[in-house]
Amino acid sequence: MTVHTTGQAPARSRRRTHVPEPYDFRRPMTMAREHARVLEMAFETFARQWGNQLTARLRAMAQVTLDGLSLQTYDEYVRGLPGTTAMMLCTIEQTRQTAVVQVPVSATMVWIDYMLGGPGTGDAREERELTEIELTLLRGVMGAALGDLGYAFSSLTPLDVTLRSVQYNPQFVQAVPASDAVLVATFLMRVGEREDVTTVMFPAEVLLAAVRQADGAGSRSLEDQRAHELAVLDLEAAVEDVPVEVAVRFAPVVVRPRDVVGLSVGDVVPLSHPSSQPLDVVVDGVVLARAAAGNNGSRLACMVVTVEEKP
């Protein structure tokens, strides 16, 4: 009997099926799954409360549902918005940072139409800006909705958000630096027979820091917590004993390059610092105090007259 054997076919080289895509290493990292779920639950609570608020104020059936939560850069967020839309810039009172609630202009006009007793037809012109009266009505609706944000996140962190202004061109709104990471919650909003997509944007670190802190505090035992507190105290004590260089400086003077190149022994460089003005006491480029020049025995010295920290 003849047995025929077939050799193993040589492995074929795998061909690329698509063009490699460049990866931007500046883009934010992904969220941990458990952290994302905690934030989703908070935004889902906010969505339910927002829908209830709209139903009560517009006297029309309204429903808001969370459609997604993503971590991206602010530039990516803005590029994904319509060319004209209502961007409600809000102040986060705890950190003085800016959050954004974005709603199509035509959707806000439907709200206003309902509030004024109309059938909810609104105005389909997206490029039209709101009048002062319409803005006042919108502030009333959004004030209650932003209050619900604090309720939704109360288990994580205090969050007081107030409406500051309304802008209409996202490309010209610099709420946060373009490369900063932001959390974007996308909602499907249904008011009457109309359905719109709205977004809420927060600087990522505001919410992620709260989630991480809550997660860390919940997973620590009492012994771990005490050890952490002792470590913090030791670190603070060590930092207080670190030597730092303190400088006293006059007000700067502007000179031309040719004056610097031509300096020689005996030249006098006039300063613009008035003799009655105190000197700056500086640590690492930060002005911490002001002092008057003097001496202490045979050494030059200065006496602090005011303490003021400048950024």
TrEMBL record:
CDD domains: FliM
Location in or out of the cell: Bacterial flagellum basal body; Cell membrane
Residue span of region Disordered: 1-22
UniProt keyword terms in alphabetical order: Bacterial flagellum, Cell membrane, Cell projection, Chemotaxis, Cilium, Flagellar rotation, Flagellum, Membrane
Keyword Phosphoprotein attributed: no
Any GO molecular function: cytoskeletal motor activity
Domain annotation Flagellar motor switch protein FliN-like C-terminal: ranges: 238-306
Keyword Membrane: yes
InterPro entries for this protein: CheC-like_sf, Flag_FliM, FliN-like_C, SpoA-like_sf
GO BP: any one term: bacterial-type flagellum-dependent swarming motility
Signal sequence extent: none
Membrane topology: Peripheral membrane protein
Gene Ontology CC: bacterial-type flagellum basal body; plasma membrane
Family, similarity comment: Belongs to the FliM family.
Record protein name field: Flagellar motor switch protein FliM
Protein source organism: Cellulomonas hominis
